[in-house]
Every structure is written in C-alpha cells, then in structure tokens.
Amino acid sequence: MKPSPDTCASEFAHAMQEALTHTPRRISPKWFYDAEGSRLFDAICELPEYYPTRTELGLLDRNANDIARRLGPRVELVEFGAGSLRKVRLLLDALDRPAGLLPIDISAEHLHASAAQLQQDRPGLAVRPLAADFMQDLVLPPAQGPRVGFFPGSSIGNFEPDEARRLLQRMAGWLDRGLLIGVDLVKDPDLLHAAYNDAQGVTARFNRNLLARANAELGADFELSRWAHSAFYHPALQRIEMHLISRSDQVVHLCGHAITMAEGDSLHTENSYKYTVAGFQRLARSAGFEPETVWVDARRWFALHWLKPAAA
Ligand code: AVJ
Fold this sequence. Notes:
alpha/beta; 7-stranded mixed β-sheet; 36% helix
C-alpha cells in the first residue's frame, strides 16, 4: 500500500517516526490497540500464563457485594480503557440501581461493538461510549449520578509513576465518589516473565502488531520476522519492559523516510509497572485520594483498590 499524504500526517505516523529516530527508541503502548491489537489483547487475557485478568475477575466476583455497598447506590461508572467490558458486567450486576456507564477507550471500533452488545443486554442502562485517549484533554458529558471511576486490568502500570500520579490527580477531579482500580502486584519474577512470554506466542504477536499496523496504515515495510519479541522484569524499577529487537541490520521505509536499524537495536514498546499494596497507596495519596479498602487474592498476585477523594 502506498501511504497517502494524509495518513503520513496522522498522529500515529508522527509517533512512529519519532519512536524510530530518537534515542532510546520508544513508543507509547497505546498504539498497540487497533482492531487487531484489541483482539490480540483479549486473546492474551485467556492465556494460562496471563494471571491478571483471571485474578481480577475472581476478586470482583468474590467481593461484588462488599464493593457495591462501598460504591453506593445510583452511581454512574466511568470506565477507563474499557476494552471488551467483561469486568464491568460483574460490577453492574452487583450495584444498586446503577445510573449509567461511560466506557472510554482509544480503540473506537472495539469499544462501539462492546458497548452495543452491553446496551442490548441491559436496555435499561444508559451506556454512553466515548472513543478517546484519556491522556489527552477529555471532556466528560454531564454526570447522571455520583461518579465512580473504574480502571481495571492494571493499565495504570503502563505509565511512569510521575505520569500515573498526574493521571490519578485528573481522575480525582472527575470522580466525586471515588475510584476502583486494579493494580498488578510485585511478585516472583518467574511468574511475571511467563505472563509476558507465553508459550503460544500471543504476546509476541501483540507486540509485533505495532509493526503490522504501521505497514497497514502508513505503508511502512517492516518485515515482521526480522523483529524479536523481548519481555523481561526489571526488579529495581519494578516493571516489565517489552521491546522489539531487530534481528539483523535492516532499513525500514516509513512515510518517505529510510530508517536504518542495526542487529540488536531495540524499540521499547511498553512498560508495565508492578506495585506493592503500600507503594500504590502512597502514590494514590500523593494524587489526592484516600485509600479506603483493598482486596487482594490469596496468592497476593493482584490488588483491587477502592480510593475515595481525600476530604478537601
Ligand atoms: C493492558 C497494560 C494491563 O501490562 O499487562 C499484556 C498489556 N502487554 N501483555 C499489561 C499487556 C503484554 C497489559 N495492560
């Protein structure tokens, strides 16, 4: 496909060019989520090695009544990075007369399909999907009840701690009732390693999908087989890093640029920070929340925090 001048003026084109020409080469993981990337992520959630989804669903399921009581009646839920809307269904089932759901996701197609399905299953619920990047300026429609944020999956781990603090601060401004947020815990590095290096290679495909997307949308000529998936735990920084490593010297063409990569060169595609319970509570306090309750599974793999806005 020949790139049109206008796809090359897109934000994605700009992000890819910057990513490949700066040192170190790095890009925001938000670009993983085109329709295929969202589908691959849903497949990751089903993998035997990828414990976060299953563990968080278990926490929501087992504690649904307690959670619902704490959130209160007639709340409007705002879900950040809503994806397939599977988890919020458990909450909606338990909540006392929820006033509505505002699911926000960057992957428009996937969001609208999931929201339409949910609306069909719950005709009485006001579902108002918002295809947006919540890191950019975000204007929420008028609230239909006390607002509770729902940010599951440990997506907060994609941000540098400073950035995460700023995001939580903005959320505190939107959410008068509080925030229910899922956070992956610091744990045995072998378990973390397995979760991001699954035997079926789905995570590797998810990682390489960034390059497939650049080929499809921007007319780039990445040869996917020349890029190795690399994911490892960095204990001092308490994060998983994902990279794409060039398997040989190569030249990639992207929107009129020829970019040279040497064998072993890396493109850093994602960080996934892990937190202890106390470490995350400290971050939440610094962002204007008061940690109220935390639910943790018996193996201490995943934490679900209920944070209230700190009294002004
Ligand atoms: C969606 C950011 C929570 O960090 O575990 C899964 C994304 N990347 N496997 C994570 C992801 C590789 C996921 N988050």
